[in-house]
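Tip: read the tokens left to right.
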């Protein structure tokens, strides 16, 4: 149910990114947004496996066209401020991280249920998709043809500086999305917390991440992105082992909050640098990031296999590679 749509979406993301460098970008965002609305409506109405699978197959690549190309358009709006605009983008995503569970909880509390919550998202997506009509479209004489855009993307993914940035992004993700995916399992099966306490731990981490993303904006006015990454990675080298070794609930929650604050900027700053490395080709940056995501999608699988063999407590130590890699890669930059 989850793997097939994810595989299809990952396979199509690079193609959508390349097409986004042509004059079709605005149309792709519009169609992606309306397709997402359709997918959400079908998900809310699904009564069996096949309709739900079809809805998710439509929704996964639609999200790529809708969201990723909107991000690329934001990066084109003010090229000198790409890193700070990516920080704004990440802050908006943090509101979704924190607000999504609250929306679902409110829907259940008021008797609407998860179907009602997803149906509301379907309705809300329509005006957002139509807003894409106001986005500036690449000028026909400045936008490459599709074949040229594909060649540009293939050339970009072979560049050493682009590969360096992709490695930086995927290394940081070990203590972002990968950590988020394993955190509740670790707290329940290794730390022996109740599911309710584990939910609290995830909430503390995501809430601290929201606060950190908020604080990142004024920080970037005064401090270079490289220094932010190095300083937070260095502190994380102590905070993350401390979290794994802390014996009680309260110390772990405090260190979880610290980790949520420290990883702010680990996505926004390298992603802004990736757009900087490909000026005038923001769709190509989306495509290159999609190709890196396909390779990185095997990381959770490998970690899951390792957790099955060695236990999740031992597997969590592998994620310490994130701050180590950030220190090494930013020093090379």
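Filled-in amino acids:
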């Amino acid at each position: 149910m989850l793997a097939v749509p994810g595989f299809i979406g990952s396979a199509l993301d690079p193609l959508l990114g390349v097409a986004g460098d042509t004059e079709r970008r605005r149309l792709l965002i519009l169609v992606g947004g309306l397709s997402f609305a359709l997918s959400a409506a079908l998900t809310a109405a699904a009564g069996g496996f096949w309709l739900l699978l079809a809805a998710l197959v439509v929704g996964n690549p639609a999200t790529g066209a809708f969201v990723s190309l909107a991000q690329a358009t934001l990066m084109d709006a003010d090229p000198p401020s790409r890193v700070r605009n990516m920080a704004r983008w990440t802050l908006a995503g943090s509101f979704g991280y924190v607000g999504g569970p609250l929306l679902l909880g409110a829907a259940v509390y008021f008797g609407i249920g998860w179907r009602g919550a997803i149906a509301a998202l379907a309705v809300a997506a329509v005006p957002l998709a139509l807003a894409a009509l106001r986005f500036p479209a690449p000028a026909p004489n400045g936008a490459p043809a599709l074949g040229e855009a594909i060649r540009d993307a293939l050339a970009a993914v072979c560049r050493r500086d682009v590969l360096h940035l992709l490695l930086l992004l995927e290394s940081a993700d070990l203590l972002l999305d990968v950590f988020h995916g394993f955190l509740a399992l670790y707290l329940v099966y290794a730390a022996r917390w109740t599911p309710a306490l584990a939910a609290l731990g995830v909430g503390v981490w995501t809430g601290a991440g929201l606060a950190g993303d908020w604080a990142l904006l004024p920080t970037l006015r005064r401090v270079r992105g490289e220094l932010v990454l190095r300083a937070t990675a260095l502190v994380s080298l102590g905070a993350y082992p401390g979290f794994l070794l802390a014996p009680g609930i309260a110390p772990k929650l405090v260190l979880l909050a610290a980790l949520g604050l420290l990883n702010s900027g680990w996505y926004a700053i390298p992603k802004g640098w990736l757009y900087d490395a490909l000026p005038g080709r923001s769709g190509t940056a989306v495509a290159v990031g999609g190709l890196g995501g396909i390779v990185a999608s095997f990381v959770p699988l490998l970690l899951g296999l390792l957790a099955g063999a060695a236990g999740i407590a031992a597997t969590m130590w592998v994620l310490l590679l994130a701050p180590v890699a950030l220190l090494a890669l930013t020093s090379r930059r």
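Residues 3-153 form one domain. The chain has 16 helices and no strands.
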